[in-house]
Amino acid sequence: MEYKFSDKVSGLQASAIREILKFTADPEVISFAAGNPAPEAFPTERIAQISAELLRDDPILALQYSITEGYTPLREFLKGWMTEKGCFHKEFDDIIVTSGGQQANELSCKVLLNEGDTLLCESPSFIGSLNAFRSYNVNLVGVDMEEDGIDLAKLENALKTEKNVKILYLIPNFQNPTGRTMSLAKRKAVYELACKYDFIILEDDPYGELRFAGENVPSIKSLDTEGRVIYSSTFSKLISPGFRTGYVSAPAPVIQKMVVCKQVSDVHSNIWAQVVAHRFMTTIDREAHFNKLRAIYREKCDLMCGFIESGFSKEISYVRPQGGLFIWCTLPESCDMNAFCTRAVRDYKVAVVPGNSFSIRSDEVSHSFRLNYSTPTNAQIEKGMEILSRMTREMLG
Amino acid sequence: MEYKFSDKVSGLQASAIREILKFTADPEVISFAAGNPAPEAFPTERIAQISAELLRDDPILALQYSITEGYTPLREFLKGWMTEKGCFHKEFDDIIVTSGGQQANELSCKVLLNEGDTLLCESPSFIGSLNAFRSYNVNLVGVDMEEDGIDLAKLENALKTEKNVKILYLIPNFQNPTGRTMSLAKRKAVYELACKYDFIILEDDPYGELRFAGENVPSIKSLDTEGRVIYSSTFSKLISPGFRTGYVSAPAPVIQKMVVCKQVSDVHSNIWAQVVAHRFMTTIDREAHFNKLRAIYREKCDLMCGFIESGFSKEISYVRPQGGLFIWCTLPESCDMNAFCTRAVRDYKVAVVPGNSFSIRSDEVSHSFRLNYSTPTNAQIEKGMEILSRMTREMLG
Question: B368 pairs with which residues across the strands?
């Protein structure tokens, strides 16, 4: 038979990064294209120990159906922890446990947007989120970024010209793909705009705890007095992405609708992972664990940045990230970025992600590419960056 | 601020069963309202053993990001197993692992239906699926059931009168809530109608392996020559519902779109559970395990049916199920079903689910209620059914 798909998904493509990742099946290729946490960052022994105790002493808890909102002790822990971080206002917020940070994006979109409503976001932005928004046929509008975050003048212009703006989607800390962090002044300004133009901010913060340089910047959620911020984060980078355990702190009426939508989507998230995450977070020295992770990513980032600074052609610019997993490099406008990335993986066997993978519109021209330092080993970073350095100098001088 | 939700979710309510389940927090209440597998059906020791080995020998596999389609060895196992069961046609089908059976419903709807398109289903039907369909603002039309499944004349009438019928949703084995099984003749007939009227059948089969009486009936998927059947099932009743691990066998182009939609929904399902499910299914004696489950549910069902036959007022009718988890009882039309269910839980401390929870339209009148025998212990079944028996005789004679 001939299959007719719904309007909302018929144009939807699998992540373009997956296409690049196909090349990385070649064992000769060194990949800076992924976004996986470093394997050495997983607290494998402690997870195994907690899991063994759980399945021995409380197997039915770990295996039976659970409630959609999430495992109650985990939600209670999150309320406390998020309060400490300024990300939970007990007067009006509630918490839902989600199947990874990704589900927070999808639920926000499904709950708040009709087809054709406008969702604003940073340009470029995380492809997984963009595709979630696209899958609801919303009017997706990108706003250019500066070094310290979204361009406020362009944002206000979009707010004046676009119709039915319901959500502004932001990754304020170590943004994917740019690695940039939004300044406190801009966080305050976008919150004021949200109040003035009556929209909701979806603050996606998967990397916030992975700050290895500079000073912590308060979240936009911490500035939320009117209940306008949906704050989402995840245990993917702190414990394990395979868990698919994330969480959202948002005004109770929004959480209530998210619960109804999550119920019809997957009933609840894997409960073994929720219980393990709860026991892990409440029995370890959290700061010591986070410091260990920060040290791993600081070392890898420093190693990669060292090569960019001493080895790359001076024609390539970048902003050194203060945390997270990614570095964003920009080629001179004379250089064909797609040709550069294709040549890198085909001829030099080093995979990077072409910047237009993160574009909001398909007709945008990007001159940038994304490097990831969390997944490769230090030896792979050294070898791959030496090759890339040579290639950039040969091509650009 | 005042929250405005999307049209598709603003009318959506949490499952009405949850309201009933609130009463069951009272420890005095005996609940026949749930739908959980029997705790004694969980293979807890084997799961603990497999998990311990996995987290010891291959922790990164269990904790790192994985691919959206599902863990490859699990998909390969499923292709073989589903082929044996006639539910996978290697010429045109593919497999995706989902976050429980529930996600299969949501993905099918998102991939194939625009708002306003028609989805037909049995009336009554499973509330979780109905709410998934409602959350996409589709035209949901119920078709009455007979003892051997959907009423074919009424189905064909709906096909002639409803516009843009894209999907017929069916639970052919031990349907939730009625416990009824569709005859082979009707399965053949609905497949022919699908070919004639050009729609897709979504065959939801969570209980198929839990047949404890009567002869196995071939799946509709096994009759699929044109690639018109999306077959979904789950490990929830065979291993653990807390895993949230289900699967879909469907034509490759449909699976491809489901993969894209699942990617934006939760990236992939919890990978620990996928690996444990694969190792469990490929290392145990499957038939012996299923026979153990069937024996548990046969005993519980027989126990409950015994009370209905010898204790209930003769005014109450029911069809004895041949498998699954539920019994559907119908009161005489003179009896107010909602008053009956409320009185049962409030005055007699026995919870059952009012039949209108499974209605397609809110204005439908139901005279039935659903009993579950899988969750209560045998002692609870005995005590609760004695009370219910007494109550039915007091009320109905």
Answer: B330
A215 DSSP assignment: -
Position B92 scores a pLDDT of 98
CA A209 to each of CA A322, A327, A376, B86: distance values in angstroms, whole numbers, following the listed order? 11, 17, 21, 49
Following DSSP, what letter does each residue of A59-70 receive, concatenated? Answer: HHHHHS---TT-
pLDDT digits (tens, 9 = 90+) for B151-166: 999 999 999 999 999 9
Residues of B whose CB is below 8 A from A106: 264-266
Q: Does residue B366 contact residue B354 with C-beta atoms inside 8 Å?
A: yes
From A185, A174, A218, A178, select the one nearest A322 (Cα to Cα): A174
Judge whether residue B298 has pLDDT over 70: yes
- Chain B positions touching A266 (Cβ under 8 A) are 99-100, 102-103, 106, 244, 266
Spell out which residues of chain B touch residue A251, defining contact as CB-CB under 8 Å.
Answer: 1, 3
Angle at A77 between CA A206 and CA A276, to 5 degrees: 75
B25 lies within 8 A of chain A by CB: no
* CB contact B139 to A (< 8 Å): no
CATH of domain A7-43+288-396: 3.90.1150.10
Partners of residue A105 in chain B, C-beta under 8 Å: 264
Measured CA to CA, the distance from residue B204 to residue B222 in angstroms comes to 13
- Chain A partners within 8 Å of B8 (Cβ): 110, 114
* Domain boundary assignment for chain B: 7-43+288-396, 45-283
For the structural domain made of A61-283, what CATH number should be given? 3.40.640.10
Q: What ipTM describes this predicted complex?
A: 0.96
Q: Which of B9, B100, B259 sits opposite A257 (nearest CB)?
A: B9
* Position A88 confidence tier, pLDDT thresholds 50, 70, 90: very high
Q: Phi/psi at A123 (nearest 5 deg)?
A: -125, 115
Domains A7-43+288-396 and A61-283 share a fold: no
Could you list the beta-strand ranges (E) of B70-216. Answer: 93-98, 118-123, 139-146, 149-150, 165-170, 200-204
CB A335 within 8 A of CB A392: no
Return all residues near A32 (Cβ < 8 A) that are at least 6 apart.
A350, A351, A352, A371, A372, A373, A375, A376, A381, A384, A388
- The per-residue pLDDT for range B201-260, each reduced to its tens digit, is 999 999 999 999 999 999 999 999 999 999 999 999 999 999 999 999 999 999 999 999
Could you say which residues from 89 to 128 on chain A have a Cβ atom under 8 Å away from some Cβ of chain B? 99-100, 102-103, 105-106, 110-115, 117, 128
Query: How close is the nearest chain A Cα to the Cα of B216, in Å?
Result: 27
Under a CB-based contact definition with an 8 Å cutoff, are residues B69 and B97 in contact? yes
Closest-CA residue to A330 (of A344, A343, A318):
A318
Residue pair A342/A33 in contact (Cβ under 8 Å)? The answer is: no
Number of H helices, E strands in chain B: 14, 14
Nearest-angstrom CA–CA distance, A281 and A73: 11
Q: How far is CA B128 from CA A21, A256, B32, B186, in A?
A: 36, 17, 18, 24
Sign for the CA dihedral angle at B88, B228, B240, A51 comes to: positive
Helix (H, G, I), strand (E, B) or coil at B164: coil
DSSP A211: B
- Give the architecture (CATH level 2) of B45-283: 3-Layer(aba) Sandwich (3.40)
Average pLDDT value for chain B: 96
pTM (predicted TM-score):
0.97
**C-alpha distances in Å from residue A161, one per residue of A63, A361, B183:** 51, 17, 59
